[in-house]
# Entry
Amino acid sequence: METPSFTFRLERVRTLRERAEERAREELANELRARLGGEALLRQATDAVSAAREAGRGAAVAGRVVSVTEMQSAQVFLERTERRRAEAELDLARQDAEVDARRRVLAAAARDRQAIDRLKERRQAEHDADWARRNQNQLDELALAVHRRGGLVAA
# Structure
């Protein structure tokens, strides 16, 4: 007896879950790329703040005469660069939260796909066991018929 091929009735659902997992993986990758950009912006802003502070210190250490207007403009520049750094830090924190959210979505999608994959494997195993049992029953019946026929001939 030939075993019929196994067909999983929820194959479309399994395919949808695979696609959802792949989409979640791509979204996480995009967020990780955005986060790397945010890290670079934060580093640049931090370097700008350091440079602005050093410029202010450099003028004072050199002993040059600095006007009040120059000091005020240097202070305004320093405050502006510090604000940009703080904004970059906040943006990075937001991106971290978004990355964490995308990781949770990916984990849920992977769990859903794994659940349906396990169901498919279970159904496949049940199908194979059922047909193995049927084949064995037919072989047993055939062996019994041969045995009976052999017993009738000998008597």
Notes: The longest helix spans residues 68-154. The two ends are 32 Å apart (CA to CA).
